[in-house]
Amino acid sequence: MRTDPRPAPPTRGSASPPRLWFADNLRILLTSLVVLHHIAVMYSGLPLWYYVEPPTGAAAGAVLAIFVVVNQAWFMGAFFLLSGYFTPGSFDRKGPGAFLRDRLVRLGIPLVVFYFVLSPLLHAGSFPGGSPLETYLDTIGTGPLWFVLALLVFDVCYAAFRVAVARRAPRERAARPPAFPMVLAFVAVLALATYALRIVLPSGTWVPGIDFPSSAYLPQYAAFFVAGAVAYRRGWFLTVTPRMGWAGFGLAAGASLVFLPLALAGGLEAWMGHGTLSSLFFALWDSAFAVGAVIALLAFFRRRLDGQGPLGRYLSAHAFTVYVIHAFVVTAAGLALGALAWPTPAKFALVAAVALPACFALAGPIRRLPGVRRVL
Q1: For a FRET experiment, which of 152, 156, 189, 253 has its CA 20 to 30 Å from that of 221?
Q2: How far apart are alpha carbons 258 and 287 in whole angstroms?
Q3: In Å, what is the CA distance from 177 to each residue of 2, 183, 249, 307?
Q4: Residue among 258, 259, 256, 282 nearest 269 (CA)
Q5: What is the maximum alpha-carbon separation in the chain?
Q6: Cβ contacts of 298-303, under 8 Å, gap ≥ 24
Q7: What is the DSSP letter of 177?
Q8: Residue 176 pLDDT
Q9: What are phi and psi of 38, to 5 degrees?
Q10: What's the CA gap between 207 and 215, in Å, rounded?
């Protein structure tokens, strides 16, 4: 094992840096949360999934809605942080041309297939009628792969930035975790940017065509991707300490105790955006919660979960495939159990127990199909 916690500065064509098992394990958790998140959406009554069932009770619907809102506050930002972290090393090893070709294959092909083929199939049970062409055009979309589209855009922007500054010598810095005042400044800037965007794009705004379901979180996604790229250069992932993890936990918990009640006091419409005071408090909460939760999880996973056995390696290798296929598995499970007259919590638990393992189990055979491993 390397004694220097910072990966050696890579050069084009050099070998990949040592595997960060804790980051892989965190990605498994995040992928699993995506599956559970969409199961919760399916049974929350929110009209945001391919198949939806109204909750059997107000309390069950409220709990699922809270689960969805809390997840939304941080877990996709964490995905972008991890993606940003591994982007500079990939660019350094491959160069701009090969890097972009690889991104177009690994991200572009699944996106195009889902957009034009799989999305209409997922809508097959709810065709509104009309001409076949109109129906098809109404049902194409990115679905859950909006993340892949956004990541592809971020990767292209990163490559353009690296080409633009290619003649500048990189600044070498000592590997150390970010100072907590820097973290607080990042939270403050992120919260203000989020608040400003939600004046024109309130929470819940749907961007047509690309099916972007969470445009109000764009500042978080872009900022976390950039933070991940910076973290790679400065060795943040490998130098975050347990003390920093506890500070992150305190930040997330403190924001939940202070800012979240202030946001909710204004009512649902008030904290969704439109420049209200409640929306400012909500932006402060989800920004602080996201940053704190991610720091806490990085510290915990690095200290406690920095290794993998055969099962962990399988789950890690197939996490992206699960992300691509999970919409079919979740929707099929919901439809298959639609006639089951169980309370919402019981159906959620049953579908979660079936769909989550099924996603990972199916990912293996799918990746063994000819040509699929090159993409997924």
Answers
A1: 253
A2: 13
A3: 18, 10, 16, 21
A4: 282
A5: 65
A6: 298/22, 298/26, 298/237, 298/240, 298/245, 298/248, 299/240, 299/241, 299/242, 299/244, 299/245, 299/246, 299/248, 300/245, 301/22, 301/23, 301/25, 301/26, 302/22, 302/237, 302/238, 302/240, 303/242, 303/245
A7: P
A8: 80
A9: -75, -25
A10: 7
CA–CA dist 131, 122 (Å, integer): 18
Which amino acid, 347?
K
Total count of residues recorded for the chain = 376
User: Nearest to residue 125, comparing CAs of 277, 338, 287?
Assistant: 338
Q: Which residue has the tokens 């699944």?
A: 110
Q: What is the mean pLDDT of residues 51-75?
A: 95
Rounded to whole angstroms, how far apart are CA atoms 287 and 303?
Answer: 25
Q: How far, in Å, CA of 371 to CA of 70, rounded?
A: 38
Give the mean pLDDT of 171-183: 81
pTM as predicted: 0.93
Instruction: Enumerate the H helices of 265-343 as residue ranges.
Output: 268-271, 277-304, 310-317, 319-336
The answer to whether 46 and 40 are in contact (CB under 8 A) is no
Q: For 277-320, what is each residue's pLDDT tens digit?
A: 999 999 999 999 999 999 999 999 999 999 999 999 999 999 99
Residue 328 · residue 122 · CB < 8 Å:
yes
User: Which positions ≥6 away from 357 have C-beta within 8 Å?
Assistant: none
Residue 343 tokens, joined: 């309370």
Residue appearing with tokens 């980051």 = 23
3-class DSSP state of 207: strand
Q: % helix / strand / coil in the chain, to the nearest 5?
A: 70, 0, 30
DSSP 227-244: HHHHHHHHT-TTT--HHH
Task: Determine phi and psi for 369, rounding to 5 degrees.
Answer: -65, 150
Tell me the torsion sign for CA atoms 293, 295, 300, 301.
positive
Distance CA 264, CA 279 (A): 9
Closest CA to 252 of 207, 284, 275: 284
